[in-house]
Amino acid sequence: MTGSETLPAEGLLAASWLLIALPLAGAAVLLLGGRRTDRWGHLLGTATVVVAFVIGLLCTVQLAGVEGRSVQVDLYTFMQTGTLDVQAGLLFDPLSALFVLLITGVGALIHVYSIGYMAHDAARRRFFAYLNLFVAAMLLLVLGNSYVALYVGWEGVGLASYLLIAFWYRRPAAATAAKKAFIMNRVGDVGLALAVFIMFAQLGTTDYAGVHGSVGLLAGGTVTALGLLLLLGACGKSGQFPLQAWLPDAMEGPTPVSALIHAATMVTAGVYLIARSAPIYDATPTARNVVLAIGAVTLLIGAVIGCAQDDIKKVLAYSTVSQIGYMFLAVGLGPAGYVAGLAHLLTHGFFKAGLFLGAGSVMHGMGDRTDIRRFGGLASRMKVTFVTFGLGYLALIGFPFLSGWWTKDAIIEAALDHGGTWGWVLGGVAILGAGLTAFYMTRLMLMTFFGPARWEDGVHPHESPPVMTAPMVVLAVGSVAAGFLLVQAFPLSGWLEPVFGEPEEAGHVVAPIVVSIVVTLVVALGVLTAWLFVGRREVPVTAPARVSPVVRAARRALYADTVNESLFMRPGMWLTRALVFVDNRGVDGVVNGTAAALGGSSSRLGRAQTGFVRSYALGMLGGAVLVAGALVAVTAG
Amino acid sequence: MSIVNYLVLAAVLFTIGAVGVLVRRNAIVVFMCVELMLNSVNLTLVTFARTTGTIDGQLIAFFVMVVAAAEVVVGLAIIMSIYRTRRSTSVDDANLLKY
Predict the structure, then answer these.
(1) What is the pLDDT, as a whole number, of residue A490?
(2) Min Cα–Cα distance to chain B from A574, Å
(3) Which of helix, strand or coil describes residue A560?
């Protein structure tokens, strides 16, 4: 924070809670309304998000005129126990405004697209209810003014993501993928929860202003712990190494979900968390270096795996993993990279959502097939999809003057400017990643849209209806223009100045123009290689079995699942089995044993009840003699 | 006369009664043995009342007689009804109430 005061909200900004309330109300109506809302449910779901976008836009315009560009909306007391006092409130500042516009803007487009995409699905209303729930939770995540509010939204998007991945819950693969996503997210969420606990314990407050204002009071180790725990949470949500394995599996969900949640918005929450916690990371170079390392590793493994996948959505998913790696790398650089990372996040939101919608359109036309080895030659059959997908592709690989070129180059420059060996390593990795991105995206493009048709029998590709292509066109325009607008025309660094401070003019290690040329050459090399490998030859319809170990490893996602299974799942199952054994034999044994002993002895004692009056009389006599004897003994003694 | 004689007689009567209750099977005899025990106790009570010159013991003896009379009525009625259903007055045949 740069010391600019946070003002109480006025005017429309005071009503910014409507942003969250509207989609939430939409979800409630659709979920509680039942079948009665089937006919107009999708329209209501879309309308709430569109209205939220309009409100968000107006709020942002109003925010631009506010002194210090940061306002606070106090809502109510969330919890109050002892010295702990958590107020539920919203913070509307340039950073949250960016996310609000991204979420509601891309969200509204994808809602429109879903009307067409899910038209033949009997459960379309439920789909829109979950989408609305997601939008509400995501807006709470970015608008909350404290880590607790963020946590609530964080869990909310996790829930929505789970529900939507498992939307076709009758398919075992979807149910498994949803569980996997949920469980791996929990691992990260534990980190975030622990970070919030530390804030409670050490600072007694969790709102951004309070925590960031008193970071200096904490011991160095505590700050580093905070940074690393927040990073763990971010890694889980954003599919970063070592918690990346759930994201590609999440593609089992409907394609609009992949576009909205698993490409444009939710998975970038980790980047938001780190950018929002900038004052914490500024105080701990250790945690920041870990962020850098994770970003670099993830962007490489995502790109490498992407090169060997044959499923159109899986390729895009690994591309997302890789691109978020770029964003982590950028925000890990500190003040030099926050703006670059967020700019890439926004442009990525456009072109990756557009690519996913394009993939959805292709699947729609190909009868839900995803194997790119059975595509080919679709360019002439699906012209709009081809052009919009192509523009998204060019933006992603960093074709000069399209979105990705502006923002990815900025990240690579910032990485090189980090200085020293570390800077060279990071910059080198980022450039290598750009080359790999060009390779796998070109491969995807060539195998899907060019070459001879390799369709299975009975497939009749056709263009999607306008309700689907219109959002794709809008996103394609964004893919082309967003980078220029955000970097050159209306620099994001100026807009975000109240959050991250004055952009400092760092001394360049390498001149930006040289970086641009080198990156463009590497990208061209990647495209050329892909053409040599894929475009020039005939593509076999089944994946060749005789391949190098590298390709085999990349096909198996670098054995991430194997590692997770052998390191965590199997020992975990052993542990549960051992605990079940202890519970059955130990705990239950003690309880059952006690009961059996009591039951056995009482049935044995019951044998004394013979039913013979004379034996009872003998017992009474014996008892009387004993009593008498005792009396005599007592009085005589 | 020493009170020992009375007490010894009472003890002998009580013992006969107790042994009778324990060893006889006929319900009527068992019943009479119970009466014998009660009366031996009455004898003891009256003996001590005479010795100490108070009437408390005699009073209690009368109570015992009243209770015994009532008990005889109920007891004989029970024996009668058992006999009607089981055609037997042996106490060992009335042994249904058990484990």
Answers:
(1) 80
(2) 48
(3) helix
Q: pLDDT-based confidence at A14, cuts 50/70/90?
A: confident
For residue A524, is it within any domain? yes
- CA dist., res. A362 & res. A372, Å (int): 10
Residue A582: predicted pLDDT: 92
Would A578 be classed as within a structural domain? no
Domain range for A67: 1-273
Which residues of chain B lie closer than 8 angstroms to A599, CB-CB? none
> Would you call B23 an interface residue with chain A, using a CB distance cutoff of 8 Å?
yes
Nearest to A609 among B18, B23, B99 (CB): B99
Containing A80, the helix (H) or strand (E) segment is strand A71-81
CB A95 within 8 A of CB A10: no
Nearest by CB to B91, from A606, A608, A614: name it: A614
What is the pLDDT confidence band of residue A418, given thresholds at 50, 70 and 90? confident
Query: 67-96 in B: which are within 8 Å (CB) of A?
Result: 91-92, 94-96
Collapsed DSSP state (helix, strand, coil) of residue A459: coil
At residue A5 the predicted structure's pLDDT band, cuts being 50, 70 and 90, is low
Q: Is the domain of A232 the same as that of A326?
A: no
Which long-range CB contacts under 8 A does A29-34 form with residues at least 24 apart? A30/A125, A30/A126, A30/A128, A30/A129, A30/A132, A31/A126, A31/A129, A31/A133
Between helices A124-143 and A41-64, what is the axis angle to 10°? 20
Q: Do A609 and B23 touch (CB under 8 A)?
A: no
pLDDT band at residue A593 under the 50/70/90 scheme: very high
Is the omega angle on the peptide bond into residue A242 within 30 degrees of 0, that is, cis?
Answer: yes
CA distances to A166, A346, A359, A361 from A106, rounded to whole Å, are 22, 10, 16, 17
Interface touch B92/A612, C-beta < 8 Å: yes
**Which candidate, A171, A182, A306, A317, places its Cα nearest to that of A258?**
A317
- On whether the CB atoms of residues A354 and A391 are closer than 8 A, the answer is yes
Rounded to an integer, what distance in angstroms lies between the CA atom of residue A627 and that of residue A632?
9
Q: Do A617 and B22 touch (CB under 8 A)?
A: yes
Side-chain-side CA neighbours of B15 within 13 Å: the count stands at: 6
Please state the pTM of the whole predicted model: 0.78
Distance, CA of A120 to CA of A124 (rounded, Å):
8
- Residue A154 domain-assigned (yes or no): yes
Identify the pLDDT of residue A38: 85
Q: Do A613 and B22 touch (CB under 8 A)?
A: no
3-state secondary structure A309-362: CCEHHHHHHHHHHHHHHHHHHHHHCHHHCHHHHHHHHHHHHHHHHHHHHHHHHH
Give how far B63 is from chain A: nearest CA, Å.
21
Examine residue A595 and state whether it is found in any structural domain, yes or no.
no
How far are the Cα atoms of A242, A547, A629 from residue A550, in angstroms, in the given order? 19, 8, 96
- A245 and A310 in a single domain? The answer is no
The answer to whether the Cβ–Cβ distance between A614 and B22 falls below 8 Å is yes
User: Residue A311's beta-bridge partner residues?
Assistant: A371
**What is the tens place of the pLDDT at every residue in B48-93?**
999 998 999 999 999 999 999 999 999 999 999 989 988 888 888 8
- Same-domain check for residues A229 and A337: no
The answer to whether the CB atoms of B21 and A609 lie below 8 A apart is no
What are the chain B neighbours of A608 within 8 Å (beta carbons)? 99
What the block records as the tokens of A453 is 């048709």
Q: How many domains does chain A have?
A: 2
A190: its two tokens? 């534990």
Q: Which residue has the higher pLDDT, A205 or A234?
A: A234
Q: Is the domain of A307 the same as that of A257? A: no
pLDDT digits (tens, 9 = 90+) for A263-284: 888 899 999 999 999 889 988 8
Distance from CA of A578 to the nearest CA of B (A): 43
**Whether the Cβ atoms of residue A564 and residue A183 lie closer than 8 Å to each other:** no
Tell whether B21 lies on the interface with A, counting CB pairs under 8 A.
Answer: yes
Smallest CA–CA distance from B21 into chain A, residue: A614
